Amino acid sequence: MADERSKGCVACGWAREQEEQCSYSSHVKLFYGVSRRGTWSIGSDVIMKEHLNEGPKTEVDTLTYLAKPPISQFRRLYVTGWTATGDTLSIQERIPVQTLEQTWPSSSESQRIAVADQVVGFRNQLRSITWASMGIVDQGPSNPGLTFFDNEPHGSFHSDLELWEALSLTLHDPPRKTFPQEPLEYLKKEMSSCEPYVLTHCVFNLGKIIVNEDLTGLLGWECSAYSTIWHEYVSASWRRTEAEWISLLQRRLEFHGDGSNLLC
């Protein structure tokens, strides 16, 4: 029992016996965590995100970039970031709205379609922002999870050929690993054109989409990067969670002519 009382909280390090020695109640609270990332509320108006030192962290750079003219359609948010012992922390304004995940059960089919169409429109705005290479907004390596599966930074890539050469090494890199040459050449021939490289949010899941009846914006720009033009469509095809929403999003992408026609 004594050990339990002296054992610190995994989030804040505060032990039960320390709690009992004071009447302090903090306004800084951990309200979301996934993998090795955590998000804290600081009062009601500010949040702090903490990411352990695992690959590129792009959210602060991306939001700062999107706040600059002429990209006037994006809401300007207070955001700042810094590193501590290799980890990345950022402080942002908290947006007092609901996510689509919260409103989905009570929304009608027409409301869901309307939001999906707005997400496609928002995605098209992002697609108007292009770059000559595939990577994060400061031109460094990105972590393109749908392209490479080792969860490591790759790039930046300045052409489809550079991207293919890096991809092929994940299959054929003698003597460590080998892959038959004929199928490898076939894969190269059938690889869809990836250019132009467009700014991509990367994760259009229900918990990232903020709504106030209509689409208000997107949360979670940690994985954003200049990526392949077909990234969002393939992402919608690949995911097996939130099946109802992903199926709807994929259909609306196709309806607006933004989907399978790119994969040829």
CATH topology of the largest domain: Aminoglycoside 3'-phosphotransferase, Chain: A, domain 2
Name given to the CATH architecture of the largest domain: Alpha-Beta Complex
CATH class of the largest domain: Alpha Beta
Number of domains: 2
Would you report the number of β strands? Answer: 11
InterPro entries: AGP_Transferase, Aminoglycoside_PTrfase, Kinase-like_dom_sf
Pfam family, one: APH
Domain Aminoglycoside phosphotransferase: 83-255
Protein name: Aminoglycoside phosphotransferase domain-containing protein
Relevant terms:
264 residues, alpha+beta, Phosphorylase Kinase, domain 1, Aminoglycoside 3'-phosphotransferase, Chain: A, domain 2, 2 domains, 5-stranded antiparallel beta sheet, 3-stranded antiparallel beta sheet, 9 helices, 11 strands, 31% helix, 20% strand, globular, Kinase-like_dom_sf
